[in-house]
Amino acid sequence: MLTGKQKRFLRAEAHHLDPIFQVGKGGVNENMTKQISEALEVRELLKVSVLQNCDEDRKDVAQELVAGTKAELVQVIGSTIILYKESKENKQIVLPR
Questions:
Q1: Residue 49, Cα to own-chain centre: how many angstroms?
Q2: Is 0.85 topped by the overall pTM?
Q3: pLDDT (tens digit, 9 = 90+) per residue, 43-57?
Q4: What's 76's domain CATH number?
Q5: Which of 12, 35, 72, 81 is the most exposed place for a label (fewest CB within 10 A)?
């Protein structure tokens, strides 16, 4: 589990990132979860954008992504979800204690 201090740090790190995945009308599917997992392994921190035409609530989408990718939810802000998962081979982000 991330501490408040770590979440603040990750929010600051994510600020300049652009969303690289979009959840639309189809909602979250297995293929998307797999791709996001792979991207998290490379980047550790990423943003997912929830489009206007998505039928699901953005908080539900965030929970599905967290469950599917085993990542940590950093924040849901507006229609953007910020996810973090420590990389096994490609560790770049050093979290504050």
A1: 9
A2: yes
A3: 999 999 999 999 999
A4: 3.30.110.60
A5: 12
**Residue 42's domain spans which residues?**
4-84
Task: Spell out the SS3 assignment of the chain.
Answer: CCCHHHHHHHHHHHCCCCCCEEECCCCCCHHHHHHHHHHHHHHCEEEEEECCCCCCCHHHHHHHHHHHHCCEEEEEECCEEEEECCCCCCCCCCCCC
Contact between 10 and 41 (Cβ < 8 Å): no
pLDDT of 50-77, one tens digit each?
999 999 999 999 999 999 999 999 999 9
Is residue 30 situated within a structural domain? yes
Number of domains composing the chain: 1
Q: How big is the CA angle at 12 (ends 20 and 94), to the nearest 5 degrees? A: 90
Answer yes or no: is 95 within a domain. Answer: no
| 90: in domain | no
